[in-house]
Amino acid sequence: MKEIGRIRKGIGGFYYVEAAGQQYECKARGLFRKQKITPVAGDIVRIEPADDESSTIVEILPRKNSLIRPPVANLDQLVVVISTCEPAPSVRMIDKIIAIAEDKGIEPVVVFSKTDLRSAEKLTDIYRHAGLPTFTVAQDSPENHDALRALLPGKLTVFTGNSGVGKSTLLNALFQELELETGEISQKLGRGRHTTRQVELYPVEGGGYVADTPGFSTLDIERYERVKKENLPFAFREFAPYLTQCQFASCAHIKEKGCAVLRAVEEGEIEPSRHESYVSMYNEVKDLKEWAMRQPT
Known about the structure:
CATH 2.40.50.140; 3 domains; globular
């Protein structure tokens, strides 16, 4: 009898699927290779259980969304961990990751780490003003951990961040049973060493999963994912009240006459740095063809 479950991890051609209250070691049908489909962590799949050998993934159910790198599907939330220092934060990078998540129907959550070393007040003001869930964490102040944990039950949440921002440290603080490896920041490179190797989903209390994105960083998401120019205004949630108020329906919200978004920036309703990120992203994709949108640069 076939069972429906979720892939928790894939390694060495084997996939570990949680279904009907137990975990199955599975191989994927050769048909997927011919169709150029690769099962990934988070996929909802139909399997044929076997008692004496590996079970078989016979169908990958339609994905509501997915990321290429890190390879994970059916995300509900993307927690972006940003250090206030070492490595220094980049609002352009933060805004690009948020926009990619918004475009895919993934709720972005912004977490600033190392606030015991440098204040994140100016940064948190920007993202809270934009209407984004925003948190701060410090090694000596774990009071926000409970608020973060409260976001996780019943959802598939992926944590991402560049090397050295303290992503694994945060996950270990939230879930001490994970015991993820952490690495010291490389002073020579100015970033942390990669210490983990594969995407794996971990069950959380109350249902749902969290995923570390080992060996991957926000730089991978930036490189492999783009937002089409026609979708980009909708990937900045604070633009929403103004998009129908522009003088021209074709307004790109860059420098056009009668643009309600630009007026909102001038009046302090939209943060200037967020609009600057929008313009930068728009200029990156405005002339790209459809096929180029799917190619990493």
